[in-house]
Amino acid sequence: MTRLPRLALTGLTVLTLALALPTGGSAAPAERERSGDFGPAVLTGFAALPALTFVPASDPSGALLGTAPVNGVTPPFADQPVQGFSGIARNSDGSYDVLSDNGYGNIANSGDFALRIQRLIPDFGTRRVDAVGGISLTDPSGFVSWPLTRPDRVLTGADFDVESIVKAKDGSYWIGDEFGPYLLHFDRAGRLLAAPVPLPGVTAPESAARLGVTANLGSSKGFEGMAASVDGRHLYPLLEGTVTGDTAGTLRISQFDRTTGAYTAKRWTYRLEATTNAIGDFIAVDKQRFLVIERDNNQGAAAAFKKIYLVDLADRDRDGLVDKTLVADLLNIADPKHLGGSADTFRFPFQTIEDVLILDDRTLAVLNDNNFPFSSGRTPGRPDDNEFITIRLDRSLHADHRVLG
Questions:
Q1: Domain count of the chain?
Q2: Residue 221, SS3?
Q3: Does residue 21 lie within any of the structural domains?
């Protein structure tokens, strides 16, 4: 979420000539053999925030979900659930800021879910995560030009679908939305600082309906991931879905210059290992390398593809796509100390895994989005907790020191 060498574009030129799909067209190529792939990661920490965790003395939520039990949980709820972690940022005091997404999955059912940045502290000794506070996202100055759901201008899941987060050195937050898709800039208290910034040439169905234009991006396929350059100047939002007219299974990485407040002409292409996959997060390793979570849409025993890749924008094989190296298979994590259960192999089998953070040169933090109360990847019929794990990689990332502190 730096200026990247050897990739300058001019005008609307795009450095993304994706390869043709194999015969049949609908399926992307199977995962390619890569000699540089990492070996299995090792589980080094496990903690969980119980699914039934709520913001104390907050507003009621979930009224639009009906009253039928979901995974044994009956809505509506007296308070706001602490759920749906779709982005993470580290704080200097050992806590973490995590982004709750739009609530319950879409505009129609999320109007009473207040968008919020939660603050968490994991305790790997007790295997629990504590929710220790947070801030709600608001627009008191009226930068959003269209009508909001709440008259007090507290933002809800019917207004934006916030999915990615970057915390700047000044304490402000850049957040990527899927309904625009938009970039949103909030101060340290969660107040919007400027009008939402649209992505030129790309429109999701939610904003297309309001603007009276034709959408060219699928619903809920906007900025699922967003990295910051190591010097903080640029943001790199990554779409979750393919733009109409692009090769199926390819995703656009754009570059936004914070000093000018505008997108640059640079763009790169990430190709999914299968057209039915999706990305979950996108973070910087150094000036041109990044980590991305790629996953299938399955959970539990059916989960078959949950991986973290190291991507290089240099496109060294000159195929028009960012280069990919497998860093960790989240369904095949060695667990010799049985931190995550009795088995020697630990699986992270959640439908949506949307948070990755570099803790040191060989250690990553990974969190799931539990889609409360809908996902039940750990135990069928029971809503997923939000799990916070740490894994040690097979070898060093050689990350820029600015992403480690």
A1: 1
A2: coil
A3: no
CATH of the domain at 284: 2.115.10
Six token digits for residue 301: 């025993």
The answer as to whether 11 is a domain residue is no
* Angle formed at CA 253 by CA 147 and CA 304, multiple of 5 degrees: 95
Q: What is the pLDDT of residues 357-393, one digit of tens each?
A: 999 999 999 999 999 999 999 999 999 999 999 999 9
pTM: 0.91
Over the stretch 307-366, which tens digit does the pLDDT of each residue have? Answer: 999 999 999 989 999 999 999 999 999 999 999 999 999 999 999 999 999 999 999 999
Residue 228, strand partner residues: 235
State the amino acid at position 59 in one-letter form.
Answer: D
Residues with Cβ < 8 Å from 367, sequence gap 6 or more? Answer: 85, 88, 98, 353, 354, 355, 386, 387, 388, 389
- d(C-alpha 98, C-alpha 117), whole Å: 6
Residue 127 lies in a domain: yes
Backbone angles phi, psi at 63, to 5 degrees: -65, -25
